[in-house]
Amino acid sequence: MQEWLETCLPNVADSFPVLQQSILETLQMVLAAGLISFFLGVLLGTVLTVTRQNGILPNPAVYQVLDKLINLFRSIPFIILLFCLLPLTRLLVGTAIGVRGAIVPLVFGTTPFFARQIEASLWEVDPGLVEAAQAMGNSDFEIILHVYWRESIAGIARGTTITLISLIGLTAMAGAVGAGGLGNYAYIYGQQRNRMDIIYVTVVILVLMVSVIQIIGNTIAKRNTH
Question: pLDDT tens, position by position, for the chain (226 residues)?
């Protein structure tokens, strides 16, 4: 393996330890930001669904505030959002660089998008199921848990897949401005030093990550589609 790398991808071979560390950093960013965004996105998407006009807990004030905030953060390009959040990032995690410094902007950049995915998935649930659950005396929480969430597993899986793929792209963008990971590796060791083999290998690794996530997401969605 080492001999093949030195022959076909000499620059990658020279920086192989850095590549390994970059892959680990990217996975750390995706895992940490992905988990936080998942829980926040499910929460916000659920609140949006139940508080809208035809929801089970209609509350125009709450819905309008959340709706406008989500639209606001979704409309800001990630690279600008990253710079705008520098003071907050330093306040929360003590640094604005490296993997830790990337988590806060990645969460802010991902959660609004995922919340909309969750809202769309929950809103596709058959209203008749909700009415039947209400008629049976189920509480609002039981309806959310056993009707909205349970009936939307396939849609949530698809939304999670799309969001994670988008998150991988955001980590690469964050890496180009000092967050570490594969984006930083491709920019510092590849683009700035004109080493195209490093850039190509980075692209291949990112494509493989996306493909694995897509396969897992499609499998979960398919098994829960009825």
Answer: 556 555 667 777 777 888 899 899 999 999 999 999 999 999 999 999 999 888 888 899 999 999 999 999 888 888 888 888 888 888 888 877 788 888 999 999 999 999 999 999 998 888 888 888 888 888 888 888 888 998 888 999 999 999 999 999 888 888 766 778 888 888 888 777 778 888 888 999 999 999 999 999 999 988 877 6
Question: Which two tokens mark 90?
Answer: 């330093």
Tokens 């799309």, located at residue: 162
Token pair of 141 as six digits = 């929480």
Helix (H, G, I), strand (E, B) or coil at 226: coil
Phi, psi of 55, deg, nearest 5: -80, 175
Residue 150 — φ and ψ, nearest 5°? -65, -40
Domains and CATH numbers, the chain: 2-223 (1.10.3720.10)
- DSSP 3-state of 146: helix
User: CA 161 to CA 212: how far, in whole Å?
Assistant: 10
Which single residue is written with the structure tokens 């988008």? 166
Please, where are the H alpha helices in the chain? Answer: 2-8, 10-14, 16-51, 60-75, 78-84, 86-93, 98-123, 127-135, 140-143, 150-151, 153-174, 181-185, 196-223
